[in-house]
């Protein structure tokens, strides 16, 4: 059996003006759910489903192949925290987690990120079509944050 060697992204040049870089730098707003030294989690402003959270490393990386081992580990730990809290906050069992590498695979922002959704993706909206009201995003974020801060988290 032969395995194809994974290669770095075709265009690993990092654009420091991408929206996630601006959010990390505090130059663009977001509805934050969680932050630590290496990662940030926030509500997607054009969610495909209620509770759609994005987890990003603070490290500059376009795809998973550009991430350091430390940033990759930190992202996975944050995804675990967010996924568990999201399930409890939204009253579901299970979650859906995915990410895209490169525009040909559906990546729309040139900064590595995970999408975390509560429950299955049986019915979702098209991505990047409709902005959600900030008030609704804040309500859902508050539910997630409460679960993250819960002693049972």
UniProtKB/TrEMBL annotation:
Domain of life from the UniProt record: Bacteria
Active site positions, chain numbering: 113
Pfam family of the protein (one): HIT
Domain (HIT): residue spans on this chain: 19-129
Example GO molecular function: catalytic activity
Listed PANTHER family: ADENOSINE 5'-MONOPHOSPHORAMIDASE HNT1, HIT FAMILY PROTEIN 1
Protein name: HIT family protein
Organism lineage string: Bacteria, Pseudomonadati, Pseudomonadota, Gammaproteobacteria, Pseudomonadales
């Amino acid at each position: 059996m032969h395995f194809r060697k994974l290669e770095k992204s075709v265009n690993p040049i990092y654009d420091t003006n991408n929206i996630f870089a601006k959010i990390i730098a505090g130059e663009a707003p977001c509805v934050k759910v969680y932050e630590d030294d290496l990662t940030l989690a926030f509500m997607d402003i054009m969610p495909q489903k209620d509770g759609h959270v994005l987890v990003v490393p603070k490290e500059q990386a376009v795809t998973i192949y550009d991430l350091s081992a430390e940033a990759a580990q930190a992202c996975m730990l944050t995804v675990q925290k967010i996924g568990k809290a999201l399930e409890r906050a939204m009253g579901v069992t299970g979650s859906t987690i995915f990410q895209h590498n490169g525009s040909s695979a559906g990546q729309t922002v040139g900064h590595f990120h995970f999408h975390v959704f509560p429950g299955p993706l049986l019915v979702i909206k098209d991505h990047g079509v409709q902005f959600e009201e900030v008030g609704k995003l804040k309500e859902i974020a508050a539910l997630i944050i409460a679960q993250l801060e819960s002693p049972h988290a």
